[in-house]
Design a protein that fits this description.
Elements: H1 2-17, H2 41-55, H3 59-71, H4 104-117, H5 124-138, H6 158-164, H7 172-180, H8 186-193, E1 200-202, H9 207-211, H10 225-234, E2 244-246, H11 258-264, H12 271-278, H13 284-293, H14 295-310, H15 330-333, H16 338-342
Antiparallel strand pairs: 1-2
Helix pairs in contact: 2-4, 2-5, 3-5, 8-13, 8-14, 11-13, 13-14
Organism: Medicago truncatula (Barrel medic)
Binding site for Ca(2+) 1: 70, 73, 75, 77, 79, 91
Family: Belongs to the peroxidase family. Ascorbate peroxidase subfamily.
Length: 355
């Protein structure tokens, strides 16, 4: 039996090297992990995400972004959800996250209902992964089989959050380096950037493109002139920068290929988005063109990239813990009123990182 497992692991590693779905990048993750211990998990998560989406159509984009911001900082371990304590410096106050991370109330609501159904069983990290998948499906995007069995971290890392999360002003070289540091390749970069096909961004994140790109005193030349005027109307020069603009002006609440069509006509909202198409001689241009012409190709690459991203640095086995409350490690959970936490967050969200 042991030799069989060794052979299976070896074959799995070969599959990963040659680009097959990285379902087994961590052999302890298993889509059926909760099939006996929490059989109604998917339906609980789906119903809550669906109900919140009826109130706030941007919620699916917010939840996918939340999963991304978690995985890029010490792995997919729900560290982003931890609040400040005497021993924890929260990632929520990192520059890419401060005053912009949303969806916490949805995760807390899911955790409350899951704890009632399956106490001390399901990690907050797995809830984030499932919520991201369900968010994609609810937005007419693809679904995928989510490997499960992650455990929650006992700490957060604000320093890594400031270092690892790609910024909206990154050039292509910086984007590639940021993703490569997480084991993600160029196709993954372009596919995951497609999450900017829905959601909104605050004017302050791209206003320099409209008036003073790279300190030139001129707009970004890669912006379509008609789109530029539209953005200038929505984001006035020297304004407070708090207005929010749809990433995709055509289907702002749908996960589709329009993001790539927008890049082709110079209507990428963030500099980091347009860089994927407008950087001279870039290998990303052909990938953008492929996804713009073939939504199925985009969806397949998006699914693979989301699974691959969801496997970054996961804690399994006896590492970490299963938090009873997602914002605090277990020794603090008994001191909190979870119902109060669920009701305090507003939906006044924006996007900060490049995805």
């Amino acid at each position: 039996m042991n030799s069989f497992r060794l052979i299976a692991t070896f074959l799995c590693c070969i599959a990963v090297v040659f680009g097959v779905l990285p379902l087994c990048s961590n052999a302890q993750l298993d889509p059926a992990f909760y099939s006996k211990t929490c059989p109604n998990l998917n339906s609980i998560v789906r119903e809550i995400v669906r109900n919140f989406t009826k109130i706030e159509p941007r919620m699916p984009a917010i939840l996918i972004r939340l999963h991304f911001h978690d995985c890029f900082v010490q792995g997919c371990d729900a560290s982003i959800l931890l609040n400040n304590t005497a021993t924890i410096v929260s990632e929520l106050q990192a520059l890419p996250n401060i005053n912009s991370i949303r969806g916490l109330q949805v995760v807390n609501r899911i955790k409350t209902d899951v704890e009632k159904a399956c106490p001390n069983t399901v990690s907050c990290a797995d809830i984030l992964a499932l919520a991201a998948r369900i968010s994609s499906v609810l937005s007419k995007g693809p679904g995928w089989i989510v490997p499960l069995g992650r455990r929650d971290s006992l700490t957060a890392n604000r320093t890594l959050a400031n270092q690892n999360l790609p910024a909206p002003f990154f050039n292509l070289s910086q984007l590639k380096s940021s993703f490569a540091a997480q084991g993600l390749n160029t196709v993954d970069l372009v596919a995951l950037s497609g999450a900017h096909t829905f959601g909104r961004a605050r004017c302050s994140l791209f206003v320099d493109r409209l008036y003073n790109f790279s300190n030139t005193g001129e707009p970004d030349p890669t912006l379509d002139t008609t789109y530029l005027k539209q953005l200038q109307n929505e984001c006035p020069q020297n304004g407070p920068g708090n207005n929010r603009v749809n990433f995709d002006p055509t289907t702002p609440d749908t996960l589709d290929k329009n993001f790539y069509n927008n890049l082709q006509v110079k209507k990428g909202l963030l500099q980091s988005d347009q860089e994927l198409f407008s950087t001279p001689n870039a290998d990303t241009t052909s990938i953008v063109n492929n996804f713009a012409n073939n939504q199925s190709a985009f969806f397949e690459s998006f699914k693979k990239a989301m699974i691959k991203m969801g496997n970054i640095g996961v804690l399994t086995g006896k590492k970490g813990e299963i938090r009873k409350q997602c914002n605090f490690v277990n020794k603090k959970s008994s001191e909190l009123d979870l119902a109060a936490l669920v009701s305090t967050e507003s939906f006044d969200g924006d996007m900060v990182s490049s995805i």
